[in-house]
Amino acid sequence: MEFKTILFYLFSVVTVVAALRVITARNPVHAALFLVLAFFNMAGLWLLLQAEFLALVLIMVYVGAVMVLFLFVVMMLDINIERVRQGFWKNLPLGALVGLLLIGEMAAVLSGRYFGLANLPAHNLPANYSNTKELARVLYTEYAYPFEIASVVLLVAIIVAVMLTLRRRKDTKAMHPSDQIAVKAKDRMRLVKMAPEVELPAPAAQPGEKA
């Protein structure tokens, strides 16, 4: 068995175990850390497939940005774990069925030599071939419109996430800048007419009273 094959099975086993721990860990912080472990092993699988750019992007974007954000959210929010796990066992049969289908598809791909895929002609790539350059060429030429549509969908998702967090609370006092600008001078000060106060003279002392 080649060393590359050993690394493939090692990364695959660790990825599957880490993915299972993501959905079975009771602590959300531990689940997020297991997801980081799964991402690192997936990056190793990408490296074995000679997709260095995708492996680096997976580490920088998901591990370096998305998972750090997840950890901040998990640590700052008061999450009720029992309420989150209420529908876990109810949806387990459907999740197991989807998992079995994915395992069957991956097994069919890995056993391609039984379907005649091993007889396909090999591609002779030049020495200066760059898969990153080829990926960029295909992405921005043949799939330019799907790429732009995906960008718009992500932008809409960001806007929706921001709008969902802007909830008005009744226990906070705040002034909106638009309301401050719309205020007129007559609304800032009100003149109230009041009758003048006249100081009454002190009553005269009665006979027999001390002054």
Key traits:
elongated; 211 residues; Four Helix Bundle (Hemerythrin (Met), subunit A); 3 domains; 9 helices; mainly alpha
Structure, briefly:
With 211 residues, the protein is mostly helical.
What does this structure look like?
This protein has 9 helices and no strands. With 211 residues, it is mostly helical. It has 3 domains: 1-83, NADH-ubiquinone/plastoquinone oxidoreductase chain 6, subunit NuoJ (Four Helix Bundle (Hemerythrin (Met), subunit A), Up-down Bundle); 89-119; 128-168. Helix 1 runs antiparallel to helix 2 (28-48) and helix 2 (28-48) runs antiparallel to helix 3. The longest helix has 25 residues, at 52-76. It is elongated, with a radius of gyration of 34 Å. The N and C termini lie far apart (121 Å). The mean pLDDT is 78.
Order of helices and strands: HHHHHHHHH
Can you tell me the residue ranges where pLDDT is under 50 for at least 5 consecutive residues? none
Query: Main beta sheet: strand number and arrangement?
Result: none
CATH topology-level name of the largest domain: Four Helix Bundle (Hemerythrin (Met), subunit A)
Task: Based on the coordinates given, report the CATH architecture of the largest domain.
Answer: Up-down Bundle
What is the rounded Rg? 34 Å
The helix tally amounts to 9
What is the average per-residue confidence, as pLDDT, rounded to a whole number?
A: 78
Strand content: under 5%
- What structural class is derived from the secondary structure elements? mainly alpha
CATH fourth-tier homologous superfamily of the largest domain:
NADH-ubiquinone/plastoquinone oxidoreductase chain 6, subunit NuoJ
Distance between the termini: 121 Å
Number of strands: 0
Q: What's the level 1 CATH class of the largest domain?
A: Mainly Alpha
